[in-house]
Amino acid sequence: MRFAQVTSGSIGKIYHTGMGYTTPDGTRYGATNWFNVDWREQNNLYEIVDGMRHNEIFYSNGAASLEFDDKRKVVVETITRKERGVDDIKKTLLDKTELNMKAALESTNWHIDRKTLDSSYTIPTDVEKHRKDVYTKYDSYIKNINAKNKHDTLLAMMISYDKDGKQSGELWDYPVYGEGS
């Protein structure tokens, strides 16, 4: 947790729990005092409520500002954001898509390794089908990412929800081996 010293509505020094605190008159307090709300208020120390960090695939987090909210008795952090360029977003999505594809194949990789070492080994049909399904999905994702040329169309690929309310989106729905693939 972070705290800010507030004097006459102005934000002063920032403190982190785990650090000691020294008052202007030189009195030292240990790190455990941060958990004492009365002590914090006596020393004009208020919790910093983190501003929303934006999805770093699509936005660069910019400057942060702090403002004291006298009604709530907290310091509110506001973070500006800037849209990242479409090419940067595509590169990140392509990299993440490849990682997701590798993760989806990982449970069946040993079959490929064994086939490499033992040419008489037969890879089970369900494993071959699963791997083919994953590669097909991967190829589709790559094609779809490369076809998008706007920030909002790329964002829509990642933020959607299935009928159960679970985050879905095109980039998350790889087949899972053993679950009907």
**Total strand segments:** 7
What is the percentage of strand-forming residues?
A: 15-25%
Indicate the structural class: alpha+beta
Number of helices: 5
Oligomer: single chain
The strands making up the biggest β-sheet line up spatially as 2-1-5-7-6
- Ranges where pLDDT stays below 50 over 5 or more residues in a row are none
- Distance from N terminus to C terminus (CA atoms, Å) equals 45 Å
Radius of gyration of CA atoms, rounded to a whole number: 26 Å
What proportion of the residues is helical, as a percent range? Answer: 25-40%
Mean pLDDT: 86
Task: Give the overall shape, derived from the CA principal axes.
Answer: elongated
Tell me the major beta sheet: 5 strands, mixed
Order of helices and strands: EEEEHEEEHHHH
What report would you give on this structure?
- With 181 residues, the protein is an alpha+beta fold.
- Helices cover 36% and strands 24% of the residues.
- It has 5 helices and 7 strands; from the N terminus they run E-E-E-E-H-E-E-E-H-H-H-H.
- The strands form 2 sheets. The chain has a 5-stranded mixed β-sheet with strand order 2-1-5-7-6. It has a two-stranded antiparallel sheet with strand order 3-4.
- A hairpin with a 5-residue loop joins strand 3 and strand 4.
- Helix 2 (86-105) runs antiparallel to helix 4 (125-147).
- The protein starts with a strand and ends in a 23-residue tail after the last helix.
- The mean pLDDT is 86.
